[in-house]
Amino acid sequence: MKIVFDFGGVLFRWHPPSFLARVWPHRVPDETVGAEVAQTFFQSYTGDWGAFDQGLADAATTADRITARTGWPRAEIVTVMDAVPQELQLIEGTAALIQDLKAQGHTLHFLSNMPEPYADHLETHHPLGEWFESGIFSGHVKQSKPHTPIFELAAQQFGAKPQELVFLDDHPANIEAATALGWQAVLFTTPEAAREALQARGLLAAA
CA-to-CA distance for 175 and 197, rounded, in angstroms? Predict the structure, then answer.
């Protein structure tokens, strides 16, 4: 069995409401407002940000488009975009889970919606090649979840039939897309819950 990890919100911290409250306190006084502003800024990872995710627009173009769409000052948009790498802190519980899965002989891959600049940052600052046999960043392949082509490309690259893949992701739409194509999938909430789910499937021995 091959186990496939999403990154944002699974292996690396990504919580837009609290992120925006930290980097944009003059616009986002708390996480409740942060959730509302995140919908406008990131458009549920469609639109301007979706094109950035897919490598169809660079950071400067994305900043221009968000500015034109929202009326927010471009410099403030760039501040948020430049702060994203710092937001992507390693989630230690997931890192420990990865090490345990590898120790028990599983092959690991990743499948992440990630704009190219942030993908490059993660590749530079974390030993992805040690943790994963291979992986796909949306920005590198010009496709993104939850669309079918990226899942088909992933199965091909990972050398597995869909039913041989177990996918951990924190977005229900991505889980639904994967299972519709025959993948096994676990909706990620916390490292502890993911560990329990993998143990229940017989993929990880209990500690």
Answer: 14
| Closest-CA residue to 122 (of 12, 23, 9, 206) | 12
pLDDT reported for residue 207:
66
Chain Cα centroid distance, residue 154: 15
**pLDDT the model gives residue 206:** 79
Determine the structural domain holding residue 33 and report its residue range: 16-87
| Domain match, 6 and 33 both | no
Give percent above pLDDT 70 in the chain: 100
Domain count, the chain: 2
Segment 7-25, tens digit of pLDDT: 999 999 999 999 999 999 9
Structural domain contains residue 6: yes
182 and 196 belong to one structural domain: yes
Residues 105, 173, single domain; the answer is: yes
- CA atoms of 9 and 35, how far apart (whole Å): 15
Residue with tokens 């039913």: 163
Report the C-alpha gap between 137 and 54 in whole angstroms. Answer: 9
Q: What Cα–Cα distance (Å) separates residue 146 from each residue in 37, 149, 197?
A: 22, 9, 22
pLDDT tens sequence across 120-163:
999 999 999 999 999 999 999 999 999 999 999 999 999 999 99
Residue 103 in tokens = 């120790």
Phi-psi region of 166 (alpha: psi -120 to 50; beta: other; left: phi over 0): beta
| Closest to 108 measured CA to CA, from 1, 185, 206 | 1
